[in-house]
Write a structure and sequence with these properties.
The structure is a homodimer.
Chain A lengths: L18 H5 L19 E5 L6 H7 L2 E2 L3 E3 L14 E3 L3 E4 L3 E4 L8 E5 L2 E2 L7 E9 L4 E9 L6 E10 L6 E10 L3 E9 L12 E9 L2 E8 L5 E10 L4 E7 L2 E11 L4 E11 L6 H35 L1 E4 L2 H17 L25 H14 L1 H12 L2 H10 L22 E2 L9 E2 L2 H4 L3 H16 L2 H22 L1 E2 L5 E2 L17 H24 L1 H11 L3 H13 L24 H4 L8 H12 L7 H8 L6 H11 L12 H11 L3 H16 L12 H15 L3 E3 L2 E3 L10 E8 L2 E8 L1
Antiparallel strand pairs in A: 1-9, 2-3, 3-4, 5-6, 7-8, 7-13, 9-10, 10-11, 11-12, 12-19, 13-18, 14-15, 15-16, 16-19, 17-18, 20-27, 21-22, 23-24, 25-26, 27-28
Chain lengths: 757, 757
Amino acid sequence: MAASLLDGRLRSARETNDLGDVLMGSPDTTTTAADWEDAGAWTVRRDGFDAAGLRHEETVFTIGNGNFCVRGSFEEGHPKENAGSFMHRVWDDMPVNVTELAGLPRWWGLDLWLDGQRVLTDDDAASGMRRSLDLRTGLFARAFTWQADPGGARVEVSHERFVSLVDPHAAMLRTTVTLAEGEARLRVRAGASIHVENTGLLHWRLVGQSAGEDGVALVAVTRASGIPVATVVRTELSAPAEFTPGDADGAPACDYVLTLRAGQPVEIVRSVGIVPGLDTDRPLAVAREASDRLAEQGWERSLAASAAAWRQVWVDGDVEIDGDPEAQLSVRYNLFQLVIAAPRFTEDASIGAKTLSGYGYRHHVFWDTETFMLPVFTFTQPDVARNMLAYRCRRLAGARAKAAHNGFRGAQFPWESAGTGDEVTPTWVQQDARPEELVRIWTGDIEIHITADIAYALLQYVRVTGDEEFLRTQGAELVLDGARFWASAAVEEPDGQFHYRDVIGPDEYHEHVDDNAYTNHLAAWHLRSALEVWDHLQRTAPDVASALAERLELDDAERARWADVAARIHLAVDETGLIEQFSGYVGLEDADQAVLRDPARTLSMQQIHGIEGCNRTQNLKQPDVLMLCYLLPELFTPEQVETNYRYYDPRTDHELGSSLGPAISAVMACRAGDPETGYAHFLRAARADLLDVRANAADGIHGASAGGLWQAVVFGFAGLTLSEDGWAVRPALPHSWTRLRFSFHHRGVRQVVELTA
Amino acid sequence: MAASLLDGRLRSARETNDLGDVLMGSPDTTTTAADWEDAGAWTVRRDGFDAAGLRHEETVFTIGNGNFCVRGSFEEGHPKENAGSFMHRVWDDMPVNVTELAGLPRWWGLDLWLDGQRVLTDDDAASGMRRSLDLRTGLFARAFTWQADPGGARVEVSHERFVSLVDPHAAMLRTTVTLAEGEARLRVRAGASIHVENTGLLHWRLVGQSAGEDGVALVAVTRASGIPVATVVRTELSAPAEFTPGDADGAPACDYVLTLRAGQPVEIVRSVGIVPGLDTDRPLAVAREASDRLAEQGWERSLAASAAAWRQVWVDGDVEIDGDPEAQLSVRYNLFQLVIAAPRFTEDASIGAKTLSGYGYRHHVFWDTETFMLPVFTFTQPDVARNMLAYRCRRLAGARAKAAHNGFRGAQFPWESAGTGDEVTPTWVQQDARPEELVRIWTGDIEIHITADIAYALLQYVRVTGDEEFLRTQGAELVLDGARFWASAAVEEPDGQFHYRDVIGPDEYHEHVDDNAYTNHLAAWHLRSALEVWDHLQRTAPDVASALAERLELDDAERARWADVAARIHLAVDETGLIEQFSGYVGLEDADQAVLRDPARTLSMQQIHGIEGCNRTQNLKQPDVLMLCYLLPELFTPEQVETNYRYYDPRTDHELGSSLGPAISAVMACRAGDPETGYAHFLRAARADLLDVRANAADGIHGASAGGLWQAVVFGFAGLTLSEDGWAVRPALPHSWTRLRFSFHHRGVRQVVELTA
């Protein structure tokens, strides 16, 4: 049927698509570690192209600047793409998931025609594609050869792009077209388009557009949240061309026609400014300024300015690993992906679970951010870490509303957070298999540990950076009001202990459990820490302390109660030192090791057993108790750590459970004296995105895994620990690593650690 | 802020939109009955334009041909539009509501520029707009004056369109531009565009497109269901013009520039073919043929051919009412809307609750179709009625699957039906007010009466038309397998009776009720009727009977059980003749007449009390028991009808409850000897769409109200009844009606009824 859908007269755009092709699903292909390596371990490469892997590769080649990112989507588009560019704070409503970042109008698109034929990469006309991402400079480059008909004109097309690390609103793209021989007619169409979608959903209304020789402008506004965004794209060609403006609705374009000659490559340079009305009340003017500035500086100087900023990022944060090219590249790559998504220019955004690189989890911010990603910035880019923490402090109203809604006092942070700070976890979602039967998502109701996780990250930041000013002006209030939540949510029972019942711990294979060890310990820690913060403030900034006490109506009696609750929270440890994950866990049916360790397994234990099945067994999505030991090592003896590691690690679905698990499992393996297992866990995290070992990287970067990877190296293999008077390492390098070098900031001073095997 | 979003250089499309305007909601304006009248009562008119009423008026001016419809959306578009064109059977998946008709690519759009300025109607440049829909021919016309700047060129723009009633795939549009004085440069852009949406949701992927002097072609395919649709638009101008093809992605266009001179109007005629791959394996070729045929015939002849088909529709179905222009126009208008939505060309579609005129209920087919709309066709266009019934017969598999899923035997028809015949009622929906708390929709689970409603309409069709062939080949199987469902779903209890518990009757203000009188009576009727059908078949077509018995494994014992169940279904009538709507209804708190009859009330009783509140009171969304009396008059004495009318009519939320209610309430008022109240009910139905008295006509035509309106006239005011040997009338005309004339088909013979006051 497909062929008869078209006829000879369909001559313009996309006439060669095959219908069957359009409709086909996109199973991802498998690449190997070697595909990504280069000698210097600074470049992520992919030679060749298989459309089935496109969506994964769009994620891999995401670039950005801490304000906006763009997936590695093709300038010419592709029928199987899941293109997208996301900017912090540009939230808009959506069904079920409440809110998501509206994918920006398409600013990266460029269309070429050679002798009247559209240059597309979804058929055999394109060959020899290669892509590379230079982590040192943030430059993504892609090139291919194109020849529509045997004997027809042949061109080499090269596309490069970077998002400026020095201007939150700027990106630049350069396309070079080189004709192999003779002459040919080249048509170039560059512009911006409102015809983008968030996986089928529309977020924009057109406000205005223009196209002229100095470029195109497009102003659009999000439908529900009413955020205007102005996009300006200036285009300059290195050769004279006939110009026509294109004014299709929602897609202003600059259309050029020129004669291409062999040996005389033509360069098309685009300077892009994208400005939301959140930053200025004249976004269009600011977007024009950003675009003009790039155009004036030109490609080389603009790239150099951005690359200089990247150089500083690597001075502050690079991790050098000798002897293991895959580890080297992976660690750098994951750092890169965190940096481009971390809020560099605002205190009103943080990193979503899938960063700014895809549609997964709709850019919502989970505990993944504070527990897994934030420490990387605390240690290497404290200013960014502060932005991320300020994002939470500025959303205390949402956390207080959530606590009040649940009948608690203080601040209970939402499980999923977005623009406002209100809870945005979906309550009921459709399953693909039986869409009429909705699944209840309980995490927004009862996965309560996040409030302590945020306080933990905040106090770690203060301890590492010494940023007392942040603690006084913003942080202390969050810690104190969070403690108030924990005290009000704890229930005193006849056993004289306080309990948190009907919760979900980090291990989400078990819902509605009582006295989850992780939650209870963190709650007690949070209460104790709040009291320490209070004492510290009283000592160091009594004015701040009394102002806070007044504002929060916090008195001695309440603080005494916090101490009482903290001291009497139920914490179960058996005579062997085993910490039971929650009440009744050890009595559950044991995990079936034959299934769990089957190397051919392709389904998670939850997919195999269902959530009810998981609830009945000891299978773990991630090792809850080990996470506790990781965060609060002072509470447990080395013997206890080992006992718990030996118990919980083998019961964990490391391969297909939570992507949060492997990196921290790597640390705990090192601490338990099992670095080889730790290295296996490390590789699982390292490969989550580059090699797509979980087959879901198409949805975006696994941000927690990326942050965890750095922690695995620094806190696991290097064994870095901080104390009041300094820091220490306790290395346990993997066999192949001959040298490990990294740096971090400690109380404003850069520290360098170099370890050799 | 709005002004600074734009600057002087935004010169092309839509540059004059004000941002505040784009974001504002659209409360509908109020029009009066007189606005719609003309002397001949054949034309629906609207003079003037207020954007706040646009979405309602788009619904009102919907035209179509029984295969596809187009809302009265503007050629030039409008920021507040909810544009759409829908074709039967082009279903595609959507979240929550499972499936909907994908709005067709935009084939009706036309853009004009006068001396470089875009001719738009969303600002003061346009004036004097008038719209009219000629019900005799199906021609929708719209005209306005446009002058961008004082002293600038002024034009009169006239747009006309019709969808061909003789070609399922064809529509034609004519635009005339007349310059007031001097000369001006006119630019015309005509094409098709994939950039359409179903209220924010995308359904299409582009397959191919082309643009040339002979028009544009666009092939798109629905995303989930994979239905290709080819759209071809040929454009012809009455004056020479400079042509440029437009090849923006997804929006192929023909672009013309010409000089416009005063006194020399320019005509732009577009010939449109739209063909789904469901009809042919070469949709693009067939679309070209349809478009070419129109272009060859030209506007006048093509319109005449379609108008001739309309003439026959009116010969068969017109209702003439003298003395009441509003009633006259309303009845014709509602008939028109039903005819354009009724499946003329296929047995695989039926009429959705909101016809093909909007997004309400996502084009799903409810009992509204069989009980309210189908009788109109049974009596006036039996071929169309047969198509609609065949749609159900061809979906027995879905009904059987639903029965089996619920543990029943036989065929249980879905509450909401779409392409496959599977149940597509959403189970949980978001409320606007608190989107995080979903509302459970129970109708798909327990509003079971629809199976009998379908059988009722089917047997009425057979009785009225005498179409025994349909009964034998398709209809009998549905009736028999439906009876099997009723027998298996009835529960015998210790009282010796059969009960249907936990159901919803037609009155949806009461959920989870036991022994709903309507449901129980219709179930008993269905069982009895199935036995009669069986006896009839055995007598008249014994081969068919035995083949059916074999296929359905239907034996004497089962039929005996049907008779037994039918005889023992619980049917409660008290000593006064009052039929209790369901067990316990009369014991509920009585309806508060002060609230219910408050003329200033703007909220439905459900909005006032909540569904739980309604469950506790006798408030009715629609009069369930009266509906029963309406359908099965042979079961009740005139005294009983009056008793129940006096009880239930005053407890009904006629104004803002179900839009299904008023028309049938009008019939029952006539039967109970209260025709003046009947006329008041009649007007409520008549005004549902034309005057938008329920403030929701923007979502589409109230199909059941439209069908009920015809029934109110024919079965209410005329009092038509059929018997084995003929028909009779028992008129009760409203005071103002001096003459009522209508016709219907009875066993293949056209009958004309003329009543005078």
